[in-house]
Amino acid sequence: MVLRKIYRNYLQNNLFMRLLLLFSMITVLTIISFSYFMYYSMSQAAINRELDIQKKALTNVNNYLGGKYDSAQSILFGLYRDSSLASGVSFMLQHPFQEYVQHGLEQYNLGGNSMWSDGLQYFKNQVEDNKDISNLLLYSEDQQTLYALGQNGQMKFVTANRARSYIPDVMALESKSVELPNIWVREAIGQWDPNLYAIRTPITDKLTLKTIGQQVVYFSTNGIWKILQNDKDELKGMILVLAPDGGVLFDSSNQYVGKLYPHMDQINAMYENGGSSQGDYVTKLTQSKGNFSTVSIIPRKELDASSKKIGSTIFLISAICIFFAILIPFLVVMSVAKRTNQIIRFTRKVKQGDLSVRIPDVREDEIGQISRSFNEMIEELNLYIDRVYKANIKQKQTELTALQARVNPHFLYNTLEVIRMRAISQGAHDVGEMIYSLSALFRSFVQQKKIYTLKHELEACRLYLELFQIRYKDKFTYTMDWDRRLGSVRVMKMSLQPIIENYIVHGLRSESSDNELHIRVKQVEAFLHVQIEDNGNGIAPQRLKELALFLQDEELEGESFGLRSINQRLKLLYGSEYGVKLHSEPGHGTTIDIWMPMDGGAEVDDV
Fold it and tell me: What are the Histidine kinase domain coordinates in residue numbering (predicted)?
């Protein structure tokens, strides 16, 4: 009841209030939709930006660790390239330390070089040149001994007897992956720095190709922190470097360093470059060198915090826009309504016979012009009320008659009947669309063009078909298959549309839902070939023969007037090889072939 009362008092007889309400609803819905779209787009952009930053950091870390893996391998490659150095290191790893020292002294006394000194100095130089190396370990499988070099240049010699140590068992496990330092090795060399990762590589005798030991390089994770320093302020969540067994080699949050990552099964199940785990955003990169993975994990709540800030800003801006979008039109509409009501009041006075009234509106806008026109009309009406008024009425009637005569009555009546039936059956919801298509179609008929092309004619057909597609919604479809390069070919006006109209009037099956019409245009040598095919009612054989005869008759009003008109005009303008041909089968449809010249009759105006 309240809503009905409000409608009756404020909206029912108030056009401007209805327009204002409609405009406000459209504006509010538009701003809300646009705001949501902006919020969604900006949130996704923010998330993608954060993920790109994380991925960039992951790539840098991944490449850095890959480089460290290569540097660990290059130590042995340099060893293998020097034959004397390689044989000396092989001798050291395959003989007791005292025997190797004695062998070195003998070589020195004989005037040779001490292979042990060369080997030791080579590995010392490698440690000194790479500040990220914390320790370099050499393990002898035959002697079960461990040589450990540190950054201080000192070497520690450790006996790793299998009966008293797990080191031989650890070293027996072949691995070329990046991994956590083994706790037994750590204990043996006294290295307990948690920020280390190990790269282990077998050492092979160059002559026998037998594995004689292991090289283990302990790298510090300080280099990874330096890689991440540039993006430190923008990084969210945590970045992990994981060994194949789940050991955490590096953790930017220092939560899992040196431990096994508890959700390794979920990380292994992910595809590379992206995924989600427990609602978090996860990015994963796998390095084939060393078989380790770098993983970025960003909690969803951290990204949602950024989205909330964006949402609050957009909400505030949207509220301000809605306020002014309603306030400004309201003030404008109220001003226009006030002036319009003034015109209505004066119009009523004229209706009552008072021809002395004048509207006092001196503004230069449209309503001011209406007011001045109203005043001028009253003045003219006073002077010429009889002669001028009656003459104008007769002139308008003449113009209307002339305009009506220009429109094809057959086409106009069919079209208006369809619109009327559509309005009755559907409550006039689609009338606006149909009238728009109809007006555009009439405009194309009435407008005079010096050059009328295939593109113009197909557009007229499209407008006509769109009109009837609305009428036969879900019952009728059409297609146009034509080469856009043929659009500039000149054609005769109304050369295709009457054929389309014949199909709608005579061929379309209104009770069926699979009505189809296909228009195909192509160039065949010097001809422009247009084929119009439908699956309509078709034409009986006897009637088809009659139509073939009718096409040869002179153009007369009546049934099949359009086909005869097109056929006769084509033959008269361009020659007997051009024209219209019919093919039809009852119940299966009709195919109409129209043959026109490719030059479009350049010397002939539209007919």
Answer: 496-600
The label of the residue with tokens 């059409």 reads 478
pLDDT of residue 481: 94
- Written as one letter, the residue type at 401 is T
Distances in Å between the Cα of 474 and the Cα atoms of 156, 170, 517 are 88, 75, 14
Phi, psi of 369 (to 5 degrees): -65, -40
Q: What is the mean pLDDT of residues 246-273?
A: 82
Tokens of 63: 């490449």
Q: Are 269 and 289 in contact (CB under 8 A)?
A: no
Three-state secondary structure of 195-209: CEEEEEEEEECCCCC
d(CA 101, CA 333): 105
pLDDT in tens, 101-153: 777 677 666 655 544 446 777 888 888 888 889 899 988 888 888 888 888 77
The token pair at 182 is 């083994």
Q: Within its chain, how far is the Cα of 341 from the centroid?
A: 50
For residue 81, the cross-strand partners are none
Give CA–CA dist 494/555, Å, rounded.
15
DSSP secondary structure of 513-569: S-EEEEEEEEEETTEEEEEEEE-SS---HHHHHHHHHHTTS---SSTTHHHHHHHHH
Judge residue 496's burial from the number of C-beta atoms within 10 Å of its C-beta, 0-12 exposed, 13-18 middle, 19 or more buried.
buried
**Cα 203 from Cα 414, distance rounded (Å):** 95
Amino acid making up residue 336: V
Distance CA 231, CA 82 (A): 42
Cβ-defined contacts of 411-416 (< 8 Å, 24+): 411/501, 414/501, 414/504, 414/505, 415/467
Contact 137, 123 (CB under 8 A): no
DSSP-based three-state secondary structure for 57: helix
Alpha helices in 235-352 (DSSP H): 264-269, 300-351
The partner residues of 200 in beta bridges, in order of sequence, read 216
Handedness of CA 424, 427, 429, 432 (dihedral sign): positive
> How many alpha carbons fall within 13 Å on the CB side of residue 310?
18
DSSP 453: B
The pTM assigned to this predicted structure is 0.49
Phi, psi torsion values for 562, nearest 5 degrees: -65, -45
Residue 134, burial from CB neighbour count under 10 angstroms (0-12, 13-18, 19+): buried
Residue with the two structure tokens 């978090």? 280
* Helices and strands in the chain, H and E counts: 18, 16
Three-state helix/strand/coil letters over 578-598: CEEEEEEECCCEEEEEEEEEC
Instruction: Tell whether the model's pLDDT for residue 395 goes beyond 60.
Output: no
What pLDDT, on a 0 to 100 scale, did the predictor assign at position 587?
82
Tokens encoding 415: 């079209």
The structure tokens 């019952």 sit at 475
